[in-house]
Each structure stands twice: as structure tokens, then as C-alpha cells.
Specification:
Elements (H helix, E strand, L loop, with lengths): L19 H18 L10 H11 L4 H14 L3 H6 L2 H10 L5 H18 L8 H4 L7 H12 L8 H9 L9 H11 L5 H14 L27
Bound molecules: iron/sulfur cluster.
The site of iron/sulfur cluster (SF4) has 13 residues, from loops.
Amino acid sequence: MGKRGSGSLSPEGFAFEESWAEKKRRAEEIVRILKEVYPRERHVSGEPYRTLIKCIISQRNRDEVTDRVAEELFRKYPTINDIANASVEKMQEFLRSLKVGLWRSKGRWIVEVSRIILERYDGRVPDTLEELMKLPGIGRKCANIVLAYGFGKPAIPVDTHVNRVSKRLGLAPLEASPEKVEEYLKVLIPKEEWLYVNHAMVDHGKKVCRPIKPKCNECPVRNLCPKVGIKFGT
Ligand code: SF4
């Protein structure tokens, strides 16, 4: 990057030289292409509570396991009241029987979160990052997922795929924490596109820009990627 970054973001740590304006243009083009290649049919559920519970279940679980467990959980406990009235032990046992990792913590969080939402928020999931992150078991990534996929608000959840893909594409410094990666992406990408970034980068990270042996030859943004298509500085 050039001499200046943006606000408090440091220009250090990128693998190549590029002006901030160039980086922004490149980021916008990358998002435009990824959106086309991985179209985002309506992923906003409009169900923030279910999105939140699903996010707790998903921690360190595969997507297929999460989907199956969430489906069974909402069949057994269809409403927030049903979950809030369940005992923590019963919820833990339920998760354990479905072989969910971290079942002890997740069982407690699921019941506690439901009770808190009923008692403190009148049964409505809070819709700000700050309030969401006060809930047990909800970190920054989950809070952003609830905002993006539950409420349809502009947010960029940074998971392992978004983290890796952003860094390979030179949109965040290699050593940046997920929180910093989120900050860089929010400065580089126009707000109206934030909602698409997680989905597009997750799909891209699973199918093409995989952790090991990324398929750079088939990559739709290879011409915009410093790893392959473009060379910057020395
Ligand atoms: S060119 Fe390779 S490293 Fe760059 S985004 Fe595509 S798959 Fe990832």
C-alpha cells in the first residue's frame, strides 16, 4: 500500500505496495466478480433468534452437522419460550445425544441466551453488535452473522474463510486479527456490498481458494490477486 492507510488502519504488513485508492478499486472489483460467481439468493432469514441459536451450535462444527442439529432442536423446541423453559441439563443431554462438540457450554448458552432475550429484551433479539456481544456464547463473528443473516443489516462476519481469502487477496495484512480484517474490509468495500462479502468469500474459500492447494488456475479473481495475476512494487 502507499504511504497512507485509512483512519487508524495501519498500512504496514501487506505483502506488496499499492496505493489506498488502488486497493479500494481492486476490492470493489473483486466483490463485484465474486458476487456474480457466487450469487447470493436470499440468505437473509428474517429470523434473528434462530440465526443466533444456529450460530452457537455451529461453533467448531461442520455446516452439515449444524443444519441437522438446528433442525432437530427447533422441531423439539419450536419457540424461544420452549427453549428458555428447558433445563440446562436437558439441553446439554440433547446436544450430547446428537454428538455436538462443546455440548456442555452450548447447552448452557442456548438456554441462558433465550432467557435473557425474554427477560431483558422483551423477547426480541437485540440488533446492535454491542448488545449482541453481551449475550453468553456470542462473540463478534456470531454477532455479525446475526446482523447480516438474521436482520439483513450491513455487516461483515469474518470467519476462517473470509480471514484467509482477504489476506491472500491483499485486502488485509497477513498478521491482522479477524477484528482488524473486518475493519479493513469495511473501509475498502462500499457499505451496500458488506452483506455479500461473507457469503461470497466463504463460498470462494471452500470451492477455490481452499486452505491447502488453492485452485488459482480456475480462480475468477486471479487477475486481481497478488498471489498470481498482479505484481506490485518490489
Ligand atoms: S488466485 Fe489463488 S490465492 Fe488468489 S484468490 Fe484466487 S485461489 Fe485464492
